[in-house]
Structures are given as C-alpha cells and as structure tokens.
Amino acid sequence: MDDAYSVQVTAAESQDADGLEQLMALKDADTFAVADSWGDMKGGADGLFDRDTRLLSRFVMTAGLARPSRLSSGVSQDNVFFTAHSTNRPLPPMGGRSAPAGVLHIERRRFIRDRRMFERVRILNHGIEDVLLPLAFDFAADFADIFQVRGTARPQRGTQEAPAADGRRVTFRYLGVDGVRRSSCLAFSEPPARLTASRAEFMFSLPKGRRVDLYIECGAGACDAPDEARFRLNAVQARVAMRTRRRRGASIRGPRSPRFNDWLDQSRADVALLTTDLPTGPYPYAGVPWFSTPFGRDGIITAWQMLWLDPSLAKGVLTYLAMRQATEFSAFQDSAPGKIMHETRGGEMSALGEVPFGLYYGGVDTTCLFVALAGAYLRRTGDVATIRALWPNLIAAVGWMKEHGDVQGDGLISYQRAAETGLSNQGWKDSEDSIFHRDGRFPKGPVALLEVQGYAYAAWEAMAGMARLLGDERQAEWAGRAGAVRALVEERFWLEDEQFYAIALDGDGEPCRSIGSNAGHLLFTGLPSPERAKAVTKRMLGAEFRSGWGLRTLATGQARFNPMSYHNGSVWPHDTAMAAAGMAQYGERRAVALLLGEIYAAATHFHLRLPELFCGFERIPGEPPIAYPVACLPQAWAAGSVFLMLQAALGVRIDAIEGLVEIDKPLLPSGIDRLHVTNLKVGDGVVDLAFQQLGAHTVVVPKRREGPVSVRMLG
Asked: What is the pLDDT of residues 552-582, one digit of tens each?
C-alpha cells in the first residue's frame, strides 16, 4: 500500500504483549469485529466495524474491579464464534465477605449476524460460598472511518452527540461531514445497577454452584432487548450460513494427519468467512481488518486459487466486477472506459473524497486479470451462458487494454497515476518503494510491470479461446496480440547476464534490473520459453529467494531488500503459491511440493491460519517465522494459497467443455501419503479422486464417477 495510505497502527497501540497477530476477528457480510484474546476492544485496530465505520471503539470488561485472568481463548474452527475463558482475581470485600481468585469461571461467547454483534457472558460459581461479583463494561463509539483508524490524517471531523443512556441501553450518534447521520447502540439483557454514557456496572449474586448469563448486543441503528432466545436463534442462523459457504464446491482431505487436515479446514473456513454473498453472487473480501471490502485483484486471484474446487466464486467475482466496470474518465478515480475496479469503500472519508477509494480503479493489473479469469472460468465450467452475458464487458476490458492501458503505444500495459491522491505504484506490490532500479532509484513513469505483461498475455489468449467457442471473428487478432506481448517481454525484460527478468521497464524503456518474485507470476501465465522458465525457477529456488518458509518478494542483496518490509523481502503466501503454480506449468512438480511443505511449516506456527504476509528472515531450526505486525489475519488469498499449490502439485487440469480431468505427473508433498478430492463437478458430471503415494510414484484412482466426465493420466 502506498505510504499515503499505509497502515500506521502498531501492535503496541492495538494490544498488549500478545501482538497484533493475536487479535481475534469475526466477520459477517460488511460487519466485522476485532478484539484481543480477552474479547476486549481498546482502540488501535480494535473495534466493531460496519461498512468501513467503527461503531464500537472501546469495550472492556472487568470483574471485581480488575481484568479477569485469561485461561484460554480462540475462534471456532468454522470462524463463527469467539470464546474466551477466564477466572476471577481476588474479589474485593462485599458486606464483609470476599472471594479468593479462581472460584468463578467466566465465559465470553460472541458472534456476528445481520450487522449485529451478539455476546453472552456466562459466570459460574465453583466456590464453596456465595459470591457477590461486581461486573463492569467500559465502552465508547468514535465512528472513525477505517482509514482514520489505519492512521490517515483527517482535515476535519463531524459532530458526535453525547451518548444517550436509557435503562439497559446506550445509543451513540454521529453527524458526519458528509451530512450522513450514523448511529449505533449497545444493549444489555439485565438493567445495570449503574449506567452512564461510557460505563455499565452490574452486581451479581452467585450462590455456590449456580450461574448467571448476561446477553449483550451492539450494532448499527437501534437495538432490540437482547435475551437468550434471540442469541440462540441468531447463533443457529450464523452457523448455518457459514456451513453453506464452506460446503460449496468440491472438498479435499489429507491422510489421518490432523494437523494437515486442520490446515485445509482452517483455510477453507477463512475463505468462507471472508466471502460475502452479494446480489451478484459470492465475493471473497480481501482481509480483516484493513481490507474487508471487495478488491478487484484480490477477489480475482482468490477465485482463481479456488477455481478447480469451487467455480461459484469466480462467477460471483466476474459478475460483480462487470457491474462496477468504469464507463468514463476520472483522474481522481483513475478510471477510463472498460477498466475494472481496484477497490470500493463505504466510509465517510471515501464519500467526501478525502481518499479516492469509494470506487477506485488505480490497479493496472485488474483488468487483464478479469479477462484471464473469465477464460479460465469458461474452461473450468463450460458455462457459455455466463460468458455470453459478460461478453460486452470483456470486449470493453480489452478495449481499455488496447486504447488506455498501452500508455506508451508500444504494446505493453503501463501505469502512471492520474492524480496525486492515487496510488503511486499500481501493481500488487503497491508500496511506494516497491519498484526501483538496481541502484535503488525509483523509475520515472509510465511504468510497465513484468507480471502485468504476463496477465495481458493470458488475457489475449483467453479472449482468443473464448472467441473460438462464441464464434467471434476476432479470434485470430487476439491470438496475434498474445504472441506479440510474449515477444516483447522476451525481448525487453530478459536480462541475459542475470538469467532472470527485470521487474519493470521505466518510462524511457530502461529495465529496472531489480530481481523480484514478480517473475513467478510470469511463470503462472505460461509466457516464458521453457529454457528461461527453467532459469527463473532455478534462481527462485535458491537461497536469495527461499527463506525456508516460502519465497521472498525480493531477492537478498537487492538495493532495497528488507525482510521486515511490506513488499521488499517479506514472504506473501499467495505470491509463493502463484510462483509454485507457474513452476508446475513447466513440469517442476518437486519444486511445488517443496514450497508447499515450507508454507505448511509456516502455517503450523500461525495456528494454521496463514497471515497476509510475514517477515522474510532466514529459517532457523527450532525457531518460528517472524510475524509482520500489521498483516491482515485472516486474508483471502493467503487462505486460498494451499488449494492452488495442491492443484499444482497434483497436476490437475479440468476442461468442462471436453468433460475431462487431466492429471499430469502428480506429486504429493513430503509427509503426505494420500489425498482425496470428492464431489469434483465437471460440466454435468462429477468425480471423486484418490491420490496415493506408492514408492517413488503418486497414483490416482477415480473412486466415483457419474455423468459425462473422464479422467486422463498424462506422463
């Protein structure tokens, strides 16, 4: 992310010693909550957010005038419930009596449903005497925009009214500079003994062996009185909705290795958590907390990672992005006719134009990826009807590539931000310092990124393939454009002395001779010649890229290399996965298995939930990978990485038009001797596949086959 909009919140500001990576996240549609491992929200990155506005900025519980002693906490495997278990510290004397520490079990159970956070606080007395428990909640609502929470300065703020306390409920109101009145509420099932605009105090009498339940709700608008029935009903609905999202498409299971299967389950659950069912279909939001919104690039790549298992994501992403396709020029939005959206936001700062992201098109790669995904979706599903419906959008997208994306008129896709408020770098590495020459100089624009030319090549190839099926006479033209892009990249980006590709060309056509992981994305598109792909693969598997936990975004020894940076030496799981999938296209199955094993090893240290990125320090035996402090967790394309890498390792290619599943030289990762893929739908057919390691070979057996689908082994 460009420095002007980079995340400034630090772990120290958002939590105590546990660090930001321990923050607990829940999400439903456009509402998400981030809290520490006690369940408290204390500012920083914490809070309850709805549509990019923070509705609850502080929510801290004390028991007996002190924070309870935490026993354990976590989010359920299906990502629906957060639960924290704690016990009391010594309680202050009440009526001449006091209770020792550790006699009360305090459970906080929380979920989000229908723009509401529901919570139950259950307290059970395990002591031998009755207990009087003072329980209190300190709270606040600041209505901060998500960019304000991230650290972007604001020139002005709206008017916040004094909170109104009424019986068992508090209402918060804010009049934004944009003229929009926003409100939220906090309600309790029991009337507090004392309720103010910022604190609710209760006094519970707990006979020995008895319990008390307190229900709490918070959300946008007015609150109904919370109670057990509402809590249970909404909890069931939340779990059913999540189960439905998780069960879309085929499933994949490993051997009786609970850790590997737990990783698969956690990754699938994270994709489901971040997926919002929009009117246009399911869309995976990018990540919590900073990017819980539709992103073009992230949505496309996540959908591509999941395509072989669940094509419904790709259909939802394509349909939504087609609906938001630009139709006019805007320097502020960085839009031009045919361009595909980079990001959309719903907060006050976006509405006022303080940031350009209300509907922003400053991504140079998204339009090419949109077209390429459409071609991949058609091959995977044979869904000609959807592609016909999207055909005008696809024609407009390649029109943008030809007329506006080719800024220099040299056949390459380039970018240069149209307004100073926009992102200065507009590829997936969009930090201000992520693209540079060998000596560290930043390039003059327009800049042509290496991987974007690969995406353009894939887009032209996809258009030619789709045209063949739809009977469009421009098939040969588009195939010719793909060939021309390939020739240009091989001629202008290849560095013979480095046996690698330059990361970009600057506005003068001079190569930026930095050595970065962008070349792995080029492999993913299949553009390089086999000889050059082999050279790139060899270098990327060397020590300058491989950290032992995956591939670094920048090779060691480069001018701006920093393993703690956002894009210049860190490890991004999706980046490693795309490079691995690219290597597999050139027959490098063992490289894929190797990298998959490293990413799996990293996941085991992150509670089987891969973050957006982590630091690129060299792996040291017996020590964990080093977390990046403000990484999104969960993050969609990090969660989807395992599925793309497994597809690459297994050599699975699906052509629904031919009713065919091809399996090319499958290889299982080290330590995994079998995998089962079930309910794999191919056109009107369905097949189950069992992969098993037998000596030095991996064999596959179709276990169930229904309808017109065949399985072909290659090699």
From this structure: 999 999 999 999 999 999 999 999 999 999 9
Q: Which residues of 594-633 are buried (b: 16+ CB within 10 A; e: fewer)?
A: bbbbbbbebbeebebbbbbbbbbbebeeeeebbbbbbbbb
Q: Write out pLDDT tens, residues 181-236.
A: 999 999 999 999 999 999 999 999 999 999 999 999 999 998 888 999 999 999 99
This prediction has a pTM of 0.94
Q: Is the dihedral of CA 219, 202, 225, 111 positive or negative?
A: positive
- Please count the residues of the chain: 715
pLDDT in tens, 377-398: 999 999 999 999 999 999 999 9
Distance between CA 150 and CA 274 in Å, rounded?
20
DSSP state of 611: -
Write the single-letter amino acid at 592: V
- Burial of 67 per CB tally in 10 Å (0-12, 13-18, 19+): middle
The answer to whether 614 touches 630, Cβ cutoff 8 Å, is no
Give the mean pLDDT of 78-103: 88
Residue 503 CB contacts under 8 Å (≥ 6 apart), including other chains: 435, 449, 450, 512, 513, 514, 515, 516, 518
Instruction: Please name each of the domains of the chain with its CATH number.
Output: 3-243 (2.70.98), 248-650 (1.50.10.10), 663-714 (no CATH)
Cα distance between the two ends of the chain: 43
Bridge partners, 692 (sequence order): 674, 699
pLDDT tens-digit map of 457-511:
999 999 999 999 999 999 999 999 999 999 999 999 999 999 999 999 999 999 9
The DSSP line for 654-666 is: EETTTTEEEEES-
Helix (H, G, I), strand (E, B) or coil at 253: strand
132's tokens: 């009087």
What does the pLDDT average to over 425-443? 95
CB 614 within 8 A of CB 631: yes
Packing angle, helices 573-585 and 296-306, rounded to 10:
50
DSSP β-ladder status, 82-87 and 69-75 = antiparallel
User: Residue 705 and residue 695: Cα distance in Å, rounded?
Assistant: 26
Contact yes or no for 631/609 (Cβ under 8 A)? no
Distance CA 552, CA 495 (A): 20
Q: Is 557 left (phi over 0), alpha (psi -120 to 50) or beta?
A: left
Query: Phi and psi dihedrals of 482, rounded to 5?
Result: -60, -45
DSSP 386-441: HHHHHHHHHHHHHHHIIIII-TTSSSS--B--SSTTS-S--SS--STTSS--TTSP
- Helical ranges in 471-621 per DSSP H: 475-492, 518-525, 530-540, 573-585, 589-605
635 contact partners, CB below 8 Å, separation of at least 6: 270, 274, 286, 287, 288, 291, 610, 611, 612
